Amino acid sequence: MSARARIKKPILVTGGCGFIGCNIADALATRGDPVLILDNLSRPGANENAHWLKMRHGDRIEIRTGDIRDAEAVTSVASKSSAVLHLAAQVAVTTSLDSPLDDFETNARGTINVLESLRRHNADAPVIFASTNKVYGRLLSEDEVVRSGTRYAPTNPQLATGVRESTPLDFYSPYGCSKGCADQYVNDYGRVFGLRSAVLRMSCVFGQRQFGTEDQGWIAHFIIHAINNEPITIYGDGMQVRDALYVSDAVAAWLLALDQIDRVRGSFFNLGGGPENALSLLELLDIIAEMRGHHPLLRFADWRPGDQPWYVSSTAALAAATDWAPRVSLRDGLHLLHAWLEQRFAPGRREASL
């Protein structure tokens, strides 16, 4: 569906004041699409991101304060939207361990609210869901990885190009269960009820407007603590590996999936940096030391439940379906994020964009 065809109705972005959501909303508004955001503004930085969006785009972006657990609130916005990009969620494994019911209500029930609103009132609207690599579970145990320098590497050579979408699902942690449940519901509503749905299983996305915490957004969290000379806690030994994707490349994938929904509907796609943009926690700390001229303060703690020793996405399926490819290198993206966080969080400074 072209932008012109959508111009009379806004594109709904649930969680549109969060890190990825606000970058998607900004990109949509920049290209001329009206945007409607539903966000409960509970995440750190959400109010600031909301202000940033309104300063940049004015009436092109409407922000409604509401919660996806509220079916009526969801219906009021989903029923009048041309498409739904569903990013609102409880996003932390640790929070899901403390409050499994709240995690379920937000991620599983909240997603059902979105799907039911579309099924009953707006069945032709595309819906794209932000899933997670946690649907694959812990994936590898300690005896299935080996140490290679400052990182773990899988012993299975078939994983050299990353984890594919054909990998069996193996939910681990309440967060993995709730997001995995939603992941499957989104696909099933497409299969059974004909919704034009697709799922993006997100790996580590980082970039500007990310207010990282210990529970979510680890790259930004590490850099913020380094900027403020605060100790960074490493759970495990720091050799665990993730693939990292700069936010503008993630946004490009979302827009391609939206614009090509009838080509990608019914599909699951991994969205991450791939093997070329993978790094361990220890390797990130070395890059931070290069950028700042000294090593961050560290302390170590035990592994947390569900922690993956290694996860790297294969994005070949997404590339084949949409011609998408990352454009920002890992190091360039880290320097861009560091510059923004330095401006925003360094003592005595405030964000110039506000």
Shape label: globular
Tell me the number of strands. Answer: 15
Number of separate domains:
1
Average of per-residue pLDDT values: 94
Spans of at least 5 consecutive residues whose pLDDT stays below 50 are 1-6, 350-354
What structural category do the secondary elements indicate? alpha/beta
CATH homologous superfamily designation: NAD(P)-binding Rossmann-like Domain
- Based on the coordinates given, report the CATH architecture: 3-Layer(aba) Sandwich
Distance between the termini: 34 Å
Gyration radius from CA atoms, angstroms: 19 Å
Helix content: 40-55%
CATH topology: Rossmann fold
Number of helices: 13
CATH top level assignment: Alpha Beta
Question: Can you offer a commentary on this structure?
Answer:
- The chain has 354 residues and is an alpha/beta fold.
- It has one domain (9-345): Rossmann fold (3-Layer(aba) Sandwich), CATH 3.40.50.720.
- The protein is built from 13 helices and 15 strands.
- The chain has a 7-stranded parallel sheet, sandwiched between helices.
- α4 packs parallel to α6 (100-121).
- The longest helix has 22 residues, at 100-121.
- It starts with a helix and ends in a 9-residue tail after the last helix.
- Residues 1-6 and 350-354 have low confidence and may be disordered.
